[in-house]
Please model this.
Amino acid sequence: MQPTQTPPPDRRLTARDFDQELIDLYDYYVHGRIDRRGFLDRAAKFAVGGLTAAALLDLLSPTYAFAAEVPKDDARVVNETVSYASPDGNGELRGLLARPAGAPARLPAVLVVHENRGLNPYIEDVTRRVALAGYTAFAPDALSPFGGYPGNDDEGRAIQQKIDKVKIIEDFVAAARFLHAHPASNGSVGVVGFCFGGGVSNTLAWRLPEIIKAAVPYYGGQPPAEEVPKIKGSLLIHYAELDTRVNAGWPAYETALKAANINYEAHIYPGVNHGFHNDTTPRYDAPAAKLSWERTLAFFKAKLG
Model:
């Protein structure tokens, strides 16, 4: 099934409004497996009822007005932009630091790692959600040394794709160390990340085993099996059943986790796509997002305090 016309502004499309092949094409596009022209060419067969392939791409793309669960001016959260040094990465970076208003000076802390397009409004909102749950939350923008998130995901992806892959990981390693030592952190640190950020969450778990007590990768790439025994913290792993691209690495990861006796919990949410937590696109699945987030907050409470 696919939409036959552009919906009214208050009509939120879901993945069920689209053919699964088209959803998969969009996934290939946003992860660089095909370019825009490749998407448009292959999506043309779904362009019916007056819709063009370009219109389908627009319908599948984020609508950030939906990412306002905790608005920027919400009095319950204190937000500020802070800078930190990444000597082995890209120099100096900026990020969003959020805390619950009126909270004690030091709280458990959670690093929030964005997708493959920089610190967009969805990730900013997630950061405020984490803060509202009682944490010092910090979301770095890996694009900040290159001008920062540019205001749209296509440009953000293009910038992030050009960043040295080794240095960008070092930027998040530095961010975790910065948060661990921050005066608003009590030193009990976790990480949650989405897509690219899910892969970073897995990486930080083994790169910084003395710092990361709890890691929550959402549909993230898995680390090399030989690095898994270095993990000392606990993992809560979220996957989407229809995300065959990322899920292909899960069996080997699970085998390594079991062999190393790592404390982990994994959930594969049935019938949902990669990006199901992102409430700004049709791939969002409200029941899976809600359940996974409840599990995430309960996990952080248990592991971080």
Notes: Strands lie at 77-86, 91-100, 107-113, 136-141, 185-194, 212-218, 234-240, 264-269. Residues 71-304 form a domain with the Rossmann fold fold (CATH 3.40.50.1820).
